[in-house]
Specification:
Heat Shock Protein 90; 2 domains; seven-stranded mixed sheet; disordered C terminus
Length: about 325
């Protein structure tokens, strides 16, 4: 204002815009906010008194101060709401973790007694059938407890055991294991070595959950394909099926806890697989993408992180068990 008097109060407004932007990026303490506000008021007032501007424009100083204070109030209120939401989410994770831990021991004891009761009852009797049902439900509760425990820890970045992971070998291993376990062809797309910095066990669990989900959504004769690739510098895992698909309105809900698709209504499951996959992917700094159409199948893509090079060469013993026999590679 002193150097370019023709600009009138334009520099004055830019000062307020600047401190507003700075405060919006990083909230200051009450003392720092008061000191900055006081300094700006004093400096701009003295400068305006020494420049040939109308004295009536001095009224802009308290007006801009009020605007800044209103912005401070809104930023603090929003930050308090975000902090409270974070605390609620943390309490929810702690509750799930504590509940899962507390349920483990009594469920294990109950399963043991249910197995003893089943073996002690006459074979083929109604009582033994009831004991089998009870044992199956106890095992289902144990699976839910284990997945809740995994879900409570899956989203914590500091819980990851990071190292270089060969995603191409990981999907080959998943295809081999699930082909044998389900006695259905799980196709593995051949790809170049794909490496990423991640937690191998968590990523393996994600692939297993997606393959299991795809098998539950398909019938014999449908295709299930797993692959790893580098796209735009990012490492991606993908699981594609030609099953029943997901309606557009239900795609986002599939990552909510205990939500299950219509194809899995009559099949075993907990509805926690996809939320765990999402939590693990986000803990790696990645994203989950879904493309699906009803009766046309689905594709789940996990964009994990920047691809790393060069990839370490696995030892022969590490790859021996990953070789798919010709009858397991799928069509």
């Amino acid at each position: 204002m002193l150097i370019f008097p023709r600009w009138q109060t334009v520099p004055f407004h830019w000062i307020w815009i600047t401190i507003t932007l700075l405060y919006g990026y990083r909230r200051w303490s009450n003392l720092r906010t008061a000191l900055v506000l006081l300094a700006v008021i004093v400096i701009t007032t003295i400068t305006m008194l020494r420049t040939p501007v109308e004295r009536a424009e001095l009224s802009e100083v308290p007006l801009m101060s009020c605007v800044f204070l209103a912005m401070v109030w809104h930023v603090r209120r929003r930050q308090d709401a975000v902090d409270e939401q974070r605390r609620v989410a943390e309490r929810e994770r702690e509750f799930m973790r504590d509940a899962a831990h507390s349920l483990r021991t009594p469920l294990t004891v109950a399963q043991g007694h249910a197995e003893l009761l089943r073996d002690a009852l006459a074979s083929g009797s109604q009582a033994q059938d009831d004991a089998v049902v009870m044992l199956d439900e106890l095992r289902r509760l144990a699976r839910i407890s284990d997945k809740l425990l995994l879900l409570s820890a899956a989203g914590h970045t500091d819980a990851l055991l990071l190292g270089l992971v060969r995603l191409d070998l990981l999907v080959r291993d998943a295809g081999c294991r699930w082909s044998a376990a389900s006695r259905r062809a799980v196709t593995v797309d051949d790809s170049e070595p794909v490496c990423v910095l991640g937690d191998e066990q968590r990523l393996r669990h994600s692939v297993d959950a997606l393959v299991e989900n795809a098998l539950n959504a398909t019938r014999p004769g449908d295709r299930v394909t797993v692959s790893a690739a580098v796209r735009d510098g990012w490492a991606e895992l993908a699981v594609t099926d030609t099953g029943c698909g997901i309606a557009a309105a239900d795609v986002d809900r599939m990552f909510e806890r205990f939500v299950r698709g219509p194809c899995a209504a009559d099949r075993p499951g907990t509805g926690l697989g996809l939320p765990i996959v999402k939590a693990i992917t986000e803990a790696h700094g990645g994203t989950v993408m879904v493309t699906s159409r009803s009766d046309h199948g689905s594709t789940f893509r996990l964009r994990i992180g920047p691809a790393r090079a060069p990839c370490p060469t696995p030892s022969p013993s590490a790859t021996e068990g990953l070789r798919l026999s010709p009858d397991r590679r799928g069509p």
